[in-house]
Amino acid sequence: MIRIVIADDEELIRGALVALLSLETDIEVVADVSDGRAAVAAATTHRPEVVLLDLEMPHLDGIDAAEQLGSTTACRTIIVTRHARPGTLKRALAAQVSGFVPKSTPASKLASIIRSVASGERYIDVQLAAAALMEAESPLTDRETDVLRLTRAGLSTKDIARTLTLAHGTVRNHLSSAMAKLHSESRITAATVAHDNGWI
C-alpha cells in the first residue's frame, strides 16, 4: 500500500483528489491539509511514501515544503500546479522533487505517476520540461535573488539586512539593481516578477 499526504489550499480540488485517489486499491490517503507547513507536519507524523503538493499554498509553497521534506524525511514529493511557470521547474528540480505535473492530469494517470514515484522513479511533465528548456536564465546575482526572496517573504529591508548579515545600504543597493534589471518600480513588484519567472 502506498501511503500519501495531499496538500492543496483549494478545498474542492483537495477533496476531489482525496476521493479519486482513495478509489485506487493500492493507494491510501493518510492525511489531507491546506498549506505547506501543515504538509510538512503531516508527513513528519504519518511518514507517507509520497506527498502531493500544490505549488502555490499559504505559509510555505509546494517547492519550499518539498525542500524541507527532503531534508527531514524519506518521503518523495510531487508538485501539482494549475499555473505552471517554466522557471518553477528548475526550482523544483533543485529541491529534489520526484514529480512535477499540471492539475489537468487525469486522476488515473496521476495514480500511475504516484506509483512510479513511490518505486523510485522521477516524472516530469513533457510540456513543462520543453518550456523550461526555452526559458531565459535569471539576470539576477545570488545576492539579488536572496534579497528578493526575503522581500517576497514579507521582510523589511532592515530585517533582510539582519538576516543576511549585510549593511542596510548594501541591501538597498541589491534591491535597486534587481529592480532595474526586472524593470520594476518597487521591490515588491520585482520580487513578484522574479517569482513568476521561477527565479526565486
Automatic annotation (TrEMBL):
Domain (HTH luxR-type): residue spans on this chain: 133-198
Residue list for modification 4-aspartylphosphate: D54
Sorted UniProt keywords: DNA-binding, Phosphoprotein
GO molecular function annotation: DNA binding
Ranges for domain Response regulatory: 3-118
Database matches in Pfam families: GerE, Response_reg
Biological processes annotated in GO: phosphorelay signal transduction system; regulation of DNA-templated transcription
Alphabetized PROSITE patterns for the sequence: HTH_LUXR_1, HTH_LUXR_2, RESPONSE_REGULATORY
Record-linked SMART domains: HTH_LUXR, REC
Domain of life: Bacteria
Keyword Cell membrane carried by entry: no
Protein name: DNA-binding response regulator
